[in-house]
Specification:
The protein is of the alpha/beta class. The chain is 37% helix and 15% strand. The chain is built from 9 helices and 5 strands. The chain has helices spanning 2-8, 51-58, 75-78, 113-123, 153-163, 167-187, 191-198, 203-206, 208-215, and strands at 35-41, 63-67, 84-93, 104-110, 128-130. The chain has a 5-stranded parallel beta sheet with strand order 2-1-4-3-5, with helices on both faces.
Length: 220
């Protein structure tokens, strides 16, 4: 019994998916003029579904910081000199005009709604609390959302890239995000849900070869 449990817990060290559903063959790194920092609740670090971990994987210039209540982070550990620091949060202010992305450092909060709300309270005064318009339905089908207006961390970054007019980075991240969601659904055994997700996803054509490969039944 013990060996079966250990075997079932094996995951790819990069994409964090079981080897059967590994998507690293289509891993792409993304360059972005924004300075991106992900402030992650420490519990989120261990969740394979985390899109904060996804951001760090596909945008290597981004930085990741773990937040613990007992270990306070200081703004000097986060702030990038020469950039205006923004903290993206639904309770922030609307920005009427966007500066050049090279002038902005964005801090994304990663965790559950309750966890990120607690983090945001501690970060008040660090920089500008910003709320960008986010519309439509979330494509983050891996966790149930209690509010239709809530989105995953990667989706928040997608809205941000779109608002800044960074179309190439936006499309590249969107494909990596949707591949992550699709493969995670398959890894959980939710084949019908994954097929419904795929029907409205750009990865059906962008990663057609890998999708077909994942669909091949493997011998046990």
């Amino acid at each position: 019994m013990r060996s079966v449990v250990l075997k079932s817990s094996v995951r790819c060290p990069r994409c964090q998916l079981p080897p059967r559903w590994c998507v690293c063959a289509e891993h792409r790194e993304i360059a972005c003029p924004l300075a991106i920092d992900v402030l992650m609740h420490h519990r989120e670090w261990f969740r394979p579904s985390s899109t904060g971990n996804l951001i760090q994987r596909v945008i290597p210039a981004s930085r990741q910081h773990l937040w613990r209540r007992e270990r306070k982070l200081g703004v000097d550990e986060i702030r990038v000199p020469g950039r205006e620091l923004w903290i993206l949060h639904p309770q922030g202010e609307q920005v009427p005009e966007l500066p050049a992305p090279e002038q902005v450092q964005i801090v994304l909060l990663d965790g559950s709604w309750r966890e990120t709300s607690a983090i945001a309270q501690e970060l008040r005064g660090w920089g500008r609390l910003v709320n960008l318009p986010m519309t439509g339905a979330s494509r983050y089908w891996l966790r149930a959302q209690t509010d239709a207006a809530r989105f995953s961390t990667a989706e928040a970054l997608l809205f941000l890239l779109q608002n800044f007019g960074l179309a190439e980075a936006h499309e590249a991240l969107r494909r990596q995000f949707e591949l992550h969601v699709y493969a995670s659904l398959r890894a959980r055994g939710h084949k019908e849900q994954a097929q419904a997700f795929l029907a409205e996803s750009p990865i059906a054509s962008a990663f057609a070869g890998l999708i077909a490969q994942l669909d091949v039944r493997r011998s046990r």
